Amino acid sequence: MDATTEAHPMTSTPRTAPTTLVVASLASLGAGAIHVRAVGLHGEHGEAAVAFALLAAFQVAWAVLVLVRARRFVVALGALGNAVALGGWLTTRTSGIGFIDGLEVAESPGFADGVAAALAAVAVLGAVAYLIAPSRLRLPLLAGPFPAAAVTGTLVVAAIVAATGDTHAHSDDQPVPYDGTLPVDLSGVPGVTPEQEAEAEALVTANIQALPRFAEPDAAYAAGYRSVDDSDTGVEHFINWSLINDGRNLDAQYPESLVYKVEPGGGRTLEAAMYVLEPPATLDTVPPLGGPLVQYHVHNDLCWTGEDGAYTVFAADQLPAPCPTGSHRRLLEPMLHVWIVGNPCGPFAALEGISGGQVPPGEEVICDHVHGTH
Questions:
Q1: Which spans in 211-313 are helix H?
Q2: Which residues, other chains included, contact 251 with Cβ-Cβ below 8 Å and sequence gap of 6+?
Q3: 340: Cβ contacts below 8 Å, ≥ 6 apart
Q4: pLDDT by residue for the chain (374 residues), tens digit each?
Q5: Largest pairwise CA distance in the chain
Q6: What is the four-CA torsion angle of 140, 142, 146, 152, rounded to 10 degrees?
Q7: 78, exposed or middle or buried, with CB in 10 Å at 0-12, 13-18, 19+?
Q8: Shortest CA distance to 350 belongs to which of 335, 370, 330?
């Protein structure tokens, strides 16, 4: 053995690449192929499409490079990159990635993205195993290159077929009314892309799962929500004023307002959350989530009075008319209801009358009859 070999025993790939690296390479290649398909599925959102394209390019390029030049830093780079991919998948399935358009809202795991995440995990494990024991680790025969290639290829084909099927899954189904139960199916509305539909379904799903903790008004009060004293309308809004400017939008864990139905006997039934976008949002800058399924509204016909953090509301003349002495305009940012019970106009319906507010100029108040309850 010459001096160069002794000083750098692991700087390049042997004539036959170690099985651990072959398996890691195949897994990264498979995950990259699935992410190439994801680019097309997220074409409506440029940022998401670019993110998937970059991820796919990295995973495919590393899969080739690591078999040609398996220097330790190259192997480590692949482990890190695929770990980031895995972490990104977990984030999109739990909270969403707020700074990437199209990935802001958490989505339920699907077969295709689950396979991509599993392959990324295999790539990480294979790369780390090689870094720890490059010459000592031996995988059993069934985990060798040829079985690994067969399994990876089968999974990738199945995932791509499943992802393609998801874009048409709802189109052949009869639309169903929304009743506040899971799973949420908002298919069947013309002009809504599969991605917009998935975003809207994810938002409604998150609310169905998170809001029941406020079923009792006492629980809402303990969490900082206060009534705005509008129960004479048939519903009562409870607002947590500390959440109005907290940096969050459409977060089911932190809804700015809760909407309770006023029962004949005086009881209250939680029916919806009302989200108020962060200042200085306007109807021209609302998030594109949900496309034609979703419509925001504003209130320029209300005035507020009372103590800080416990304001009450009353109807007033629309802007630019001033509020009466002692009262003020508040909550002029766009708002959106998300119902966790059936509604005649679907899960994003506005209230009626003075409580309904004003929609963007030139638009009519939408009513989702496809998913409305009758």
A1: 217-222
A2: none
A3: 180, 204, 207, 208, 211, 212, 270, 271, 272, 273
A4: 444 444 444 444 444 457 788 889 999 999 999 998 888 776 656 788 899 999 999 999 999 998 888 889 999 999 999 999 999 999 988 887 878 876 766 777 889 899 999 999 999 999 998 998 766 555 554 455 677 778 888 888 888 887 765 544 444 457 789 999 998 999 988 888 989 999 999 999 999 999 999 999 999 999 999 999 999 999 999 999 999 999 999 999 999 999 999 999 999 999 999 999 999 999 999 998 999 999 999 999 999 999 999 999 999 999 999 999 999 999 999 999 999 999 999 999 998 866 789 999 889 999 998 898 86
A5: 93
A6: -110
A7: buried
A8: 335
What is the phi-psi region of residue 235: left when phi exceeds 0, alpha when psi lies from -120 to 50, beta otherwise? beta
The number of angstroms, rounded, from the C-alpha of 104 to the middle of its chain's C-alpha atoms is 5
Domain ranges of the chain: 3-166, 194-356
67 vs 19: CA distance, rounded Å: 10
Question: What's the CA gap between 284 and 281, in Å, rounded?
Answer: 8
Taking the mean position of all CA atoms in its chain, how far away is CA 74? 32
Phi, psi dihedrals of residue 265, rounded to the nearest 5°: -85, 5
> In whole angstroms, how far apart are CA 135 and each of 17, 154, 327, 330, 337?
11, 29, 77, 68, 60
Distance CA 368, CA 200 (A): 13
Helix H or strand E segment including 304: strand 302-307
